[in-house]
């Protein structure tokens, strides 16, 4: 439920716009999945002349995605592809001397992913590490470029006997999507000497380590770890600092019983900026991250965004160390803000309606950011004096030939008086005064939001001739903490009121044809689809992706054991709550909506059994239904041909009942 669908993560969001249609343009088609790329992981070179990044594209013949390393000049005039390997590359970083770009790849390796070096002036990549003692999770160059800090996870037995050994489990949280059944693992920090290739151990212990960051002088490393007695039973993390020399002991800086994450050193090395949860409980679902600072010597933190009541992420220090830039998630938007350490009020820096999704500091005091624009998925922009300037341009040629839906915000009232923000997609080339078959396509999370901008799923449905509505039901972020956490332990209640309120609004305002209403979604969107069709019979078609309706059967089956325990308790103590929350299945005979169910075969996030049960129930009572299971797929459907298939099946199903 927490994880978003693959497309939400891949394509991000773009802000609202309508634009003129051209006779040469065409609508999106499901097979356009093969044409759409993804730009990510922008990093500025030490001299500020270049920005490295990764570009993910689809190989339709091999039916897979491949990620390559590129770089673009800061003036935007020159763009160069640096790698072209079928194995793919990730975690591209600049060496401090500005000569090399390092990256992680499993190419030519029997020992898993390794670090490679690529001379930025050209030539083939060269393998730098040959790690055998653990799986590489992340790495970071020391400021002088002589060492690389590695986070290595302990390897389980990687031998492949003819008859696999039994899986022995003794963990509280014993299964997780993609990871599968979870045996005991731990990770630690190691120091790799670039010249000698010798590896020294820096941290020891049966813990997990992440988010490593070198101090500016290279004498210390900050990192994040959960060092409670049983990390599976809580979501606590704290920030630690350790000196980069033999036999050093890690010093714990934060003591918040919630989560502390994402440490970033100040330019003078005396202070860390970081993000902490609002909640201090063991389980953290409905939450807003708060921007904080803390002295490297310890003490009480300063909460810079405590009164903002909006999530903050991606903290980055200004060059003078007097303030911190960060991204703020607000009602359907994301903007860049400046948080002065002096205590002065936060200043909103980005003034246009573009959506900022990353932030990297340039040596001259400017910034680079991944920014989504009205017409295109994310590209890299220079951000100078509050103005953005495009550096990459990987999407314009394709989208010039596409007629996209116009996007606008609508606001509705729910039955209990709640005000709800939604996004409306109107298909291109259709009279705005015409009532349309309308699909309410519900986002997952639930702690997420539909933002003003491009969303491939909704744009694809709109291209098929539907008005499409994304509803930011209660539980969504961007509207304040109370709006987010009010659904805790009460799933399928207020969210359904909000969805139905948006339905009433679109019908009343002549947008939706009341006889041609559809609903769908993935993950928590699929769950809410089940809840909604069990509550209201107005919908003529539904598509529930990776959902669940029989909550009482999911305890110990999915990865949400902490959520069950903390929001509704153990079934043997609170079975009445489980029964109440299972009403879509237990009252399936009230459902009249023809419903399509989809799920990944290997989904441990919201397992296939949730979709299977609802399919069986509707098949039993005679409501038209079908079940599509994607072989070998996890919660996010990642195989390109399966993504195409999913869009084709969405459109075919809704067309059958709404047209």
Summed up:
This protein is an alpha+beta fold. Helix content is 16%, strand content 33%. Among the domains are: 139-156 and 175-303, TolB, C-terminal domain (Neuraminidase, 6 Propeller), CATH 2.120.10; 399-658, Rossmann fold (3-Layer(aba) Sandwich).
Task: Give a structural overview.
Keywords: Hydrolase, Protease, Serine protease. It comes from Flectobacillus longus. This is S9 family peptidase. It is an enzyme of class 3 (hydrolase). The protein contains 11 helices and 39 strands. It has an 8-stranded mixed β-sheet with strand order 32-33-35-34-36-37-38-39, with helices on both faces. Strands 27, 28, 29, 30 and 31 form a 5-stranded antiparallel β-sheet that branches. It has a 4-stranded antiparallel β-sheet with strand order 1-2-3-4, with no helix packed on it. 47% of the residues are buried. Among the domains are: 139-156 and 175-303, Neuraminidase, CATH 2.120.10; 399-658, 3-Layer(aba) Sandwich (Rossmann fold), CATH 3.40.50.1820. It is globular and about 70 Å long. It starts with 5 loop residues before the first helix and ends with a helix. The chain is an alpha+beta fold and 659 residues long. A hairpin with a 7-residue loop joins β17 and β18 (251-252).
